[in-house]
Write a structure and sequence with these properties.
The chain is of the alpha/beta class. It is 31% helix and 27% strand. The chain is built from 11 helices and 19 strands. The strands form 2 sheets. Strands 3, 4, 5, 6, 7, 13, 14, 15, 16 and 17 form a 10-stranded mixed sheet that branches. Strands 1, 2, 8, 9, 10, 11, 12, 18 and 19 form a 9-stranded mixed sheet that branches. Strand 1, helix 2 and strand 2 form a beta-alpha-beta unit.
């Protein structure tokens, strides 16, 4: 067994002692979760409002999913854009895509304002496709991007591919036919299964190091309005009409608003004192995936890169995403000795974790994880050193998928005192940053246009029953059943028919009152 050792945590070298909450507090905003979502939410709230902010983390800043990812910065959803357009409408889907891409500029703003030094490597990254079905999915996404006024991804298709004739004419102009060798060169592979590629802006960043640096800036720049408490797990969140109370380490934190910046796997209760039970909504339907990764050192000098390889597909009925793939990131890295290296990280092996199941970051990585990654790289990454590769790191992290596979950003519909910047959904860095900005605007009292990220748009969330409509429906069912029974006793087929119709209409009305 291999210890769960992340290269991003290894780079932190933090000297700040853990300071747990040891007193009752009153503040304007309390943020739960010290990953990149919580840290970014704190940054923009402090920058753009005059509110006092308390940030709580059960462990240490950036030691959760933020410190246990592959470090890939991408602007796509894990769900196909065209699926989101079908469900929410083209305009909403395209606006959400545009919002995620706006986070590149938000990161630049944070770097400039805080004079941050964490490297962010930007480049054109690639993805390799190996089937017609995969290609059609991405061409449909390109259609949505073009119709919505977004820049399209650059899609290449191999001229030697014998299934190319099966591409529908509706996608003409959305891809380019080139020799397969050009595609394989982009993907840095010699594996002939890849018959298409797509390219778009990507990046690499140590989001743990970035978050730690942002926190250091906030502690120095906002000493009068910002407080951080690590080692401070929340036990219970009580939300009332105009305020919230959190039970933390046996102490009470009172605030005007509470923002959950977690992956959706909260180990605490949320009690709504001003309406329906919040715990029975999406909190019990979040699906988790444990992502496993490994990394090895290569000689310095290779350009930073991120590549995804769609060489297989599998579907799990409990998983809102279904399709899985391998991905690779490469960037400069400083080893413990201070010598420069290139760090190559790869992920792909996963395990589905239903909500309620226990995830332990302390659990070791199985030897099978390293073997699966090594086998994949040997077959697909032309620069892999083969048997000479020595994996310096093997780690895993928990990703929480909301019911729609889309991040939740905004106020809780049942009580707006509670807000969310929540749900990793696999590609969380840019959505987390955009979410932090959007939450700060809500906290500043702005009235924002509806968004695909709004909690009220998530499946599985039902508003309270419309009582009047339900009462009428129940009455219609009761009257209808009476007429059916009475007509049967009195040999009155007309009465029976009328009763049946009333009962059916009542059932339909009752169902609609809960939609």
């Amino acid at each position: 067994m291999i210890p769960n050792r992340s290269p991003w945590i290894q780079q932190l070298k933090r000297t700040r002692p853990v300071k747990p909450l040891d007193q009752n507090l009153r503040t304007d905003v309390v943020i739960v979760g010290g990953g990149i979502a919580g840290v970014t939410t704190a940054f923009f709230t402090l920058l753009e409002t005059q509110k006092n902010v308390v940030l709580l983390d059960a462990d240490k800043v950036a030691h959760g999913a933020t410190g246990h990812n592959a470090g890939q910065v991408t602007s796509y959803f894990e769900r196909p854009l065209h699926e989101l357009a079908d469900q929410f409408g083209l305009e909403a889907a395209v606006n959400a895509q545009r919002d995620i891409e706006s986070a590149w500029a938000l990161i630049d703003q944070m770097v400039a304002h805080g004079k941050l030094r964490t490297p962010l490597h930007r480049f054109v990254g690639h993805a390799g496709l190996s089937s017609l079905d995969q290609l059609v999915e991405h061409l449909k996404n390109n259609q949505c991007r073009k119709r919505g006024g977004l820049a399209t991804e650059h899609v290449l298709v191999a001229e030697e591919w014998n299934e190319r004739a099966g591409i529908s004419a509706e996608f003409d102009g959305l891809y380019e036919v080139v020799p397969q060798a050009d595609i394989l060169a982009r993907l840095e592979t010699s594996n002939p299964q890849y018959i298409a590629s797509l390219s778009y802006q990507k990046g690499c960043m140590n989001s743990a190091l970035f978050s730690e640096e942002v926190v250091g800036y906030l502690l120095a720049a906002y000493q009068d309005r910002f407080a951080l408490y690590e080692g401070s797990p929340v036990k219970t969140v009580y939300v009332s009409k105009d305020s919230a109370e959190l039970v933390v380490n046996g102490k009470i934190v009172r605030a005007e608003n509470v923002v959950l910046c977690t992956n959706g796997f909260e180990n605490f209760s949320i009690i709504n004192r001003a309406g329906n039970d919040i715990d029975t909504s999406f909190h019990h339907s979040v699906v988790g995936r444990i992502g496993y990764m490994a990394g090895y050192y290569a000689p310095p000098g290779e350009a930073p890169m991120a590549i995804s390889y769609f060489s297989k597909a599998k579907v799990d009925a409990r998983d809102p995403i279904g399709e899985s793939y391998f991905y690779l990131t490469r960037r400069p890295h400083e080893h413990e000795s201070g010598r420069a290296h290139t760090l190559v990280c790869t992920g792909g092996p996963e395990a589905v974790l239903p909500n309620g199941a226990e995830y332990s970051r302390a659990q070791a990585c199985a030897e099978d994880t390293k073997i699966a990654i090594d086998d994949f790289l040997s077959t697909n990454y032309a620069k892999h050193p083969g048997q000479e590769a020595e994996y310096a790191f093997c780690w895993h992290g928990l990703m929480g998928y909301t019911p729609e596979g889309v991040r939740l950003i905004g106020p809780e519909p049942l009580n707006p005192v509670l807000l969310y910047n929540l749900g990793c959904n696999g590609v969380g860095i840019l959505p987390s940053v955009f979410g932090g900005k959007r939450i700060s605007r809500f906290l500043n009292g702005e009235r924002l246009e509806p968004s695909l990220f709004d909690p009220r748009k998530q499946a599985g969330r039902k508003p309270p029953v419309k009582k009047a409509q339900m009462f009428v429906s129940v009455l219609a069912i009761a009257l209808g059943m009476f007429l059916v029974v009475y007509g049967g006793l009195d040999d009155s087929p007309g009465g029976q028919m009328l009763g049946l119709v009333l009962a059916i209409l009542g059932m339909i009305g009752g169902a609609k009152s809960r939609i």
